[in-house]
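It would be a great kindness if you could assist me with a short task in structural biology. I am sending you one protein, given as its amino acid sequence and as whole-number tokens for its backbone shapes. I would ask you to consider whether the tokens describe a fold that such a sequence might reasonably adopt. The full record is reproduced below for your convenience.
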Amino acid sequence: MAFDDLQAELALLINQMENQPEDRHELYMLIREKLNEMRAFGMPLPEDLVRLEEELEAEFAAAQQPNKSP
């Protein structure tokens, strides 16, 4: 897949994320998949999308942690 195609798909995913926040986890998985494709091809990664991936990963990991009662 060409770099321009990946960039266009990522832009579409970001737009979908803004318009459909209830699907954040699914969109996170799609963004992660596309970034992994870019990594596999040795393409440069957009820093803002890498940060977004890291932030969403941390958000979902925190949500899976059991609540600790004092």
